Amino acid sequence: MARRALKLASWTSAALAASGFYLYSNKYLDPSDFGAVRVGRAVATTAVISYDYLTSLRSVPYGSEEYLQLRSKIQDLFVSFDDTPLGAASLAQVHKAVLRDGRTVAVKVQHPKVQAQSSKDILLMEVLVLAVKQLFPEFEFMWLVDEAKKNLPLELDFLNEGRNAEKVAQMLKHFDFLKVPRIYWELSTKRVLLMEFVDGGQVNDRDYMERNKIDVNEISCHLGKMYSEMIFVNGFVHCDPHPGNVLVRKRPDTGKAEIVLLDHGLYQVLTDEFRLDYCHLWQSLIWTDMEKVKKYSQRLGAGELYPLFACMLTARSWDSVNKGIGQASVTATEDAEIRNNAASYLPQISQLLNHVPRQMLLIFKTNDLLRGIEVALGTRARASSFLSMSRCCIRALAAHKKKNTCSFFRRTQISFREAFSLWQINLHELILCVKELRLATWVLALLRRLLPTSY
Fold it and tell me: Among 30, 52, 240, 277, which one carries the catalytic annotation?
């Protein structure tokens, strides 16, 4: 019980971190961990596969003769199966294996006791949250329980994860830098998922990228494009982009940098109303239209706490939001200011998280995880990321307007304005590149003057 109480405390701190105040000492809100017990990783994984493929193992003792017989049946499926997992989490672990036809696969196996234990853990979580509410009435965290009840059953169904993977692969097929591993349906069940094995380094591993000559700025830009497309254009969002689920590599055929997106159990489906309001809000934040920042923040449930809401979304101070989040990168001073002031706003953050649409909660989490990757890569708050977001907002809003008009003239007018707005962004990006090039040239010239030419 004590360990679970501690875990609830970590969930509470994680919820506050998900507010967008990027606090280095806190953990992120991770709904994928809700209700999940970290069972021993040394379970009989191959027996679990046999359970789903062949028979029930509920009454089969580990190491018994019956267990060993079932273990041998796996040889009918795999030439080799690595017992040591490539990675393990609260719900499952992943193993590398080779099928009889020679295909190398990743086998994702659900921990045996997760299904049975999850409902008990959610109940315990609900009791503890209610207890916290009695002790601290100003803190509202029942939304944690609501999200756990909604998301955990979906994550426990690996067939649903496979469908999500195929949907996002089709949705983003125009991005040649994105790889979503293929699902092998004929060998997958609700508790075992077989997919194409794809190797790579974690997206926050700068050393790996340097060793493999992968440009961190290019990866950061690709990541921004991918998630902007999901959030603003499609409204179907992968909500667990922690470094273990986002790999980078050089494509074997072309040598170009590629992002590999894994773990598709947790997605958020945005309503058109929410998605379009969110588009308008980010456009207002990027172009510093404070009247519209207030308007669309309030439409998204922020009420009079809209300044805090804007800071939570951008992980920037209110002063930076007013000046323009794309005008300057985050400084150490601003980060320190955010960390120092965060504690005094905890009741307001709690109130805000309890009132925004449920869709916003996983968006907060996704934003913070992406920001963490940018910090690790040293690309946080680059202007290019905001420009990618703005492009997607423009396209999404234009598509909505064209969809809701029958007039050919009106659609043509909308298309022209869309093209003109995108041209303006391209011009702005070109100007920024020229400025950066001039600055780099100036710095190089200065160094040549300051440094001796010989020793």
Answer: 240
